[in-house]
Structure formats: C-alpha cells, structure tokens
Design a protein that fits this description.
Length: 298
C-alpha cells in the first residue's frame, strides 16, 4: 500500500470515528478521494508530499474536460481540502496545496417545492386505514411537519420520540442533535401508527427504528421515496416529487407565514444561516411571480 492510500484510509477512519459523518457523506468522500488517487497514480504520485498546486489544478481541469459540472467539481474540491487540511493538522504534510485554489463558480439554483395546496393533496392521498396506510400517513405528516432529511426520518428510533411534549430528537449531519416540534396532525398520525400499525408489522422486538417495512425491517430511503412518488401520482401532482422537496416546502411555508429565519435554521439543523437564507430567495421569487400574475401592471 502506498503512502497516499494509507493516508486516505486514515482520513476516512477519522471521518467515521471523530466526525461521526453519515454513511452517505462518507461514501461521497470515499468516491472523491478514490478518483483523485487514480489520477495521482497515473502521474506516478504515491505520496501526498509530492502533490503541489499545479497537480491539483490539472486534476480539476480534467474533471471539467470530462463534463463534470461546476457544482460537482466544487464538492470534489471540498473533499480534497478536508483531506489535505487533515494531513497538515496531523503532521503528515507540511503545506496544504489547496489553500490558494478557488472553488469553481456555481449558479445556485432555487430549490423545488410543493405549494401548500399540493402538500394538502399529497397528505390526503393516503386515505386508507390498514397498517401500511397508517405508516405512510405518519411518515408523510412527520416529514412535512418537521423538515427532516429522509435519512433522519428513516433513522428515527423509538427513543428519539418525545411525544409527551409533542417533539422528536433528530440527529443530523455530524450526529448533531436537535429538538423539533411535531404539530398536532403529525402527532396524531404518529400516535395512530404506533398504537395500531407498528405492532402488526414488527416481528423482531429488537428493531428500534420507528418506521418499518412490510417485513418488519427498517424502512429504507429508497423504499420511502418509491412510496412518495406513488402518492404524488395519486394526488395528481405533475412534477417529480422527492423527499427533500418536502423539506424545502417546510422551510418556505414557514417563512411565508412569518417564521423567524433563525428559528427555521434551528429546526432544519443548518450550521450556517447562509444555507437557510436560500429559502428567503424562494419566498421573494414567489412574491414576484404573484405580482406579475395578478397586478394590472405586473
């Protein structure tokens, strides 16, 4: 094993043990660094000490020539920054070659979302009363009421529920914990699922997650996404609906109804408020559209 491969393994282990990153984030880092390592090996570079700024620029240039978008190249560069900063901090490397390299410029697109009417139709589409219907209604109500990421939703454990105070504990990126209110409709749907449905689905009492599939195993992100798409079609929503769209809708609808930006940031679990501010742009854009559509001189 080369010094480079060994250093990558040490860094990835650090991300798991010290940073507590999710499996999906870890896989993204691993993919980015694997591609980087292949490029460096092609250049006969087997140690981080051999990497300089020009070599990094060559790699980013190759990604661009291969049709990789500016957003994806910015993500790769972020992974490489984290890797080299770690090596410098742990004294495996003297200088960080990424310091003076600027991130590729990206045009930040506004997130897609559902209108309040579309959300109402989506939630109303789950209108049965068997075990699966109760589960799906609870999942949709909780997702829209809390703005959870889908990984947070399917990862919810029974111990995370604080139903006596109408809240739940969510564990976001970096295993950061936050307390999020549920609201009455979501709380009612969740209580119905727990009381009448979950016991019919769970066969192994050691399963600690809240939401399970037909076989009593933990619900997967892919399984929930498939169910969500089916309910969106049933509701007559003519757009590609995905779980994060409900998170976007949650944040936008709160701001449209006068919520404080800092409160929305806390509920979403954003470390930086600038991430939350994208939703103020969504609200502004929607106001412009309403003005153009309905004002006589719009």
């Amino acid at each position: 094993m080369s010094d480079l491969d060994r250093n990558i393994d040490i860094f990835l282990n650090y991300l798991v043990v010290e940073k507590g990153l999710s499996e999906n984030t870890l896989m993204a880092y691993s993919r980015d660094l694997a591609g980087y390592a292949v490029f460096l090996q092609e250049r006969s570079c087997t140690s981080p000490a051999q990497i300089d700024q020009l070599l990094l620029i060559d790699y980013l240039t190759r990604l661009k020539q291969n049709g990789i978008s500016a957003r994806s190249r910015a993500r790769v560069l972020s992974s490489l920054r984290g890797f080299h900063r770690f090596l410098v901090r742990e004294h495996y490397l003297e200088q960080d070659p990424t310091v003076l390299i600027e991130s590729p410029r990206t045009l930040r697109s506004l997130p897609e979302l559902l209108s309040m009417a579309e959300v109402d139709r989506l939630l109303a589409a789950v209108n049965g009363d068997d075990a699966i219907d109760l589960r799906d209604r609870a999942m949709l109500e909780v997702l829209y009421a809390t703005g959870l990421r889908v990984s947070e939703l399917v990862g919810l454990r029974l111990a995370d529920l604080k139903l006596d105070i109408g809240c739940l504990n969510a564990f976001g990126k970096g295993a950061k914990q936050r307390l999020v209110p549920l609201g009455e409709p979501a709380l009612d749907a969740l209580n119905q699922y727990l009381e009448y449905s979950r016991g019919q689905l769970v066969r192994d009492l050691s399963v600690a997650v809240v939401f399970v599939n037909r076989r009593g195993r933990p619900m997967t992100r892919q399984g929930f996404w498939k169910n969500l798409k089916n309910y969106a079609l049933k509701a007559g929503i003519n757009k590609a609906v995905y779980p994060h769209m409900l998170r976007h809708s949650f944040a936008t609808h709160l701001l449209e109804n006068g919520a404080d930006l800092r409160a929305v940031q806390t509920m979403l679990g954003h470390a930086d408020i600038s991430t939350t501010q994208i939703y103020t742009h969504v609200v502004q854009e929607r106001l412009k559209q309403i003005h153009q559509q309905f004002h006589p001189r719009g």
